[in-house]
Every structure is written in C-alpha cells, then in structure tokens.
Amino acid sequence: MIDIPDALKLETIPGAVEQIFTNFINNSCQHGFKESQESHNLVFIKAFKVDDKVIIDYQDNGVGIDDAIAHQVFTPFYTTSRSQGGTGLGLSIVYNLVTQKLLGDIRIVEQHASIGAHFQIRLPIKTS
C-alpha cells in the first residue's frame, strides 16, 4: 500500500532511492514474512513533507525486528540468516545510501509485537 501525495516532490538521486526500496523489500521477504502467510504479506510506504524534509515510512506486517538485534541491523555483514544465503549487507547499504549519498537519516521506529519492521527515512527535499 502506498500513500504519497501527488504534489510531493523530491529532487534526489533516483538510483539510490530505487536501491533503498529494493533492499527494504528483499529484507521484508527474506526476514519478515513467513512462508505460510504469503497471501497476507503487506508492505506500507508513506511519504509526507515536514518543513524542508521528506519523511518516508516503510513498514511491513512481518515478524518485526527483535529488540535484542535492532541496534545491529545497519552494521555491515550482520545477518540472522547466513545459513540461508544472507550477506548482512542489505540494510547496511540502505543506511549508507540514506546518510552518505542522500544526506538524510534513518531510524527504526519503535517496535511492537506482531506489527512488523518499521523504518523512517528523513531526506532533504533537494539533494545537491
């Protein structure tokens, strides 16, 4: 489900934004969604403007991120699924694209049981 106002404009680097969403969706599929719940897997993307920033919320309805590992998910090579082929680079790449390439910030929104993973990105409206 996508909730982005038609009038919202973001001047940025399209390839970086594409990679961010690709990695988020891959992460949701690999870590968040249980195979038996395939027909109920949802991703929510919402964007809105606050002052001179665009706020992007990305949320899935998967299993969420365990509080015990939340502080590590942006660390390069950290993965809970190495035996299933996970490299631990997906969210690290997202973090670096947001903070270094797009000059924004990213955080994990407070987790609640069974609500899924929820990330919030704040980007400048115009990336020079």
Please give the order of strands in the largest beta sheet. 1-2-3-5-4
Distance between the termini: 30 Å
CATH class: Alpha Beta
Named CATH topology:
Heat Shock Protein 90
Roughly how much helix do the residues carry, as a percent range? Answer: 10-25%
What portion of residues belong to β-strands? Answer: 15-25%
CATH homolog superfamily = Histidine kinase-like ATPase, C-terminal domain
CATH architecture label name = 2-Layer Sandwich
Give a count of the beta strands, DSSP E runs of length 2 or more: 5
Shape: globular
Major sheet attributes: 5 strands, mixed
The computed structural class is alpha+beta
Parts with pLDDT < 50 across at least 5 consecutive residues: none
EC number: 2.7.13.3
Organism: Vibrio maritimus
Keywords: Kinase, Transferase
InterPro entries: HATPase_C_sf, HATPase_dom, His_kinase_dom, Sig_transdc_His_kin-like_C
